[in-house]
Design goal:
This protein is of the alpha/beta class. The protein folds into two domains: 248 residues, Glycogen Phosphorylase B (Rossmann fold, 3-Layer(aba) Sandwich), CATH 3.40.50.2000; 187 residues, Rossmann fold, CATH 3.40.50.2000.
């Protein structure tokens, strides 16, 4: 089977959020399972490929000139890099000020049109699109192959002015949205199958609260909408062979995990004692709910729990977290930015891993945490519900602590429950082992996607 897989991000070539890791993990596993995958992504500049070959794509004047460079990447394998006007930028979406590039609509609509031209040229068995950046490709594909659209985050939809409806393609009328153009809404209407990145996220996006205005459009797709839970790269996230750790470990050597806790506490300048250590590795955005943890910092000593947070994003929130770390240095540490080694050590050395998300289509870090023996404390949203059964609600299968709502008071109650569970060493070890024993890899998700592709081809 030949698949064209179009995405705006692919780790480690271009990484902004979970889309990059999900794209890379799924593509890699699909190739292992025998699928011939043509990865098509924007050429943001500075991406070195071995044995590159370039050719032009036939696109309308508004989207061109457009070309593709094909070659081998040392990590990602064969890539197709699409160059369209204005695409090469130091950040895929954002200016140095943190605001979006003012021509993001033109850049990604041109990219999507180039994806359509590439599909028309190679005639794959299936085309798999991801999020709004690629969604407008279906406007131009009147006689294309079966199509799959994966929704990684419904909050980002590709809103643009109504004038784009005049140029996107013969099926552009499906992209009209309240007097404007919406790349994601059109793709939802036209794709043969729409996949949300966790089963619970499917239920959420069909509601007014979680649908971001598209719940009716999604409801109309009926059985064409389904959920497939993401996986993680279990080669990168492997505690038994992780070069970033002070001491590798696995289920048979779980006691070796203690050395990582000691190393992490030393790095954070916390005492190496029995007080539970909770970690957070995240982007500082409203979605991630880090502001909900802020009111809890002054009462961490009372739980007792220490908290370490590694992240970057909203400058105002980062400033407040620095102040909190200065005022409560005995129980809270904040490291702004991203440190690869420290992030891995935080998974391997923390007792708890906290995700206070307001919404979370799938989530990856809770799976990484469980693979490394850190017990997750999460909110009851999206893929967190699918991956973290609550230990009190599910005594025989629970893998973490679930806060009922994304509210500070509920998170405080969840942290209090978690600190109590850690006091029972046997129960704690059981919960840790459950999380570590799960196969969090992309094997099963890739099988489900492959089954979907075959189903579409058979009925196409």
């Amino acid at each position: 089977m030949r698949l064209v897989f179009a995405t705006a991000e692919l780790s480690p070539v271009a990484t902004v959020g979970g889309l990059a890791a999900a794209s890379a993990g799924l593509v890699s596993e699909l190739r292992r399972q025998g699928v011939d995958v043509d990865v098509v992504m924007p050429d943001y500049g500075g991406i070195a490929l071995a044995d590159p070959v370039s050719f032009d794509l036939d696109v309308p004047s508004w989207a061109g000139p457009a070309s593709v460079t094909v070659g081998d990447h040392p990590v990602c394998g064969r890539l197709h890099l699409v160059d369209v006007p204005g695409m090469a930028r130091p950040h895929p979406y954002l200016q140095p000020s943190g605001e979006g590039w003012p021509d993001n609509d033109a850049r990604f609509f041109a990219f999507a049109r180039a994806v359509a031209a590439f599909v028309e040229r190679v005639r794959p068995d299936v085309v798999h699109l991801n999020d709004w950046h690629t969604g407008a490709a279906l406007a131009a594909l009147t006689d294309g192959p079966p199509s799959v659209l994966s929704i990684h985050n419904l909050a980002y939809q590709g809103h643009a002015s109504v004038g784009w409806l005049d140029v996107l393609g013969p099926r552009a009328q499906h992209y009209e949205w309240w007097g404007g153009t919406n790349s994601l809404s059109g793709a939802i209407a036209l794709a043969d199958a729409v996949v949300a990145v966790s089963p619970n996220y499917v239920h959420e996006i069909l509601t007014p609260a979680g649908g971001f205005g598209l719940h009716d459009a999604l409801t109309q797709r009926g059985a064409a909408l389904r959920g497939i839970l993401n996986g993680i790269d279990t080669e990168v996230w492997d505690p038994a062979a992780d070069p970033h750790l002070a001491s590798p470990f696995d289920l048979d050597r779980i006691d070796a995990r203690r050395a990582n806790r000691s190393a992490l506490l030393d790095r954070l300048e916390f005492p190496d004692d029995v007080v539970p250590l909770a970690a957070v590795v995240t982007r500082l955005t409203p979605q991630k709910g880090i502001d909900l943890l802020e009111p809890l910092i002054p009462v961490l000593d009372e739980l007792p729990v220490r908290l370490a947070l590694l992240g970057s994003g909203d400058a105002d929130l980062a400033g407040r977290l620095h102040v909190a770390a200065s005022n409560h240095s005995a129980s809270f540490a904040f490291i702004e930015g991203y440190d690869e080694t420290l992030s891995h050590l935080m998974f391997a050395g923390s007792d708890l891993f906290v995700m206070p998300s307001r919404f979370e289509p799938c989530g990856l870090t809770q799976m990484q945490a469980m693979r490394y023996g850190s017990i997750p404390v999460v909110t009851a949203v999206g893929g967190l519900v699918d991956t973290v059964p609550d230990v009190d609600a599910h005594p025989r299968s629970g893998r973490g602590i679930v806060a009922r709502r994304a509210e500070s008071v509920d998170l405080l109650a969840a942290l209090f429950r978690a600190s109590r569970r850690l006091g029972d060493r046997r129960r704690r070890a059981t919960i840790q082992r459950r999380g570590m024993a799960v196969d969090w890899s992309w094997k099963q998700p890739a099988r489900e996607y492959l089954g979907l592709y075959r189903e579409l081809v058979a009925h196409g």
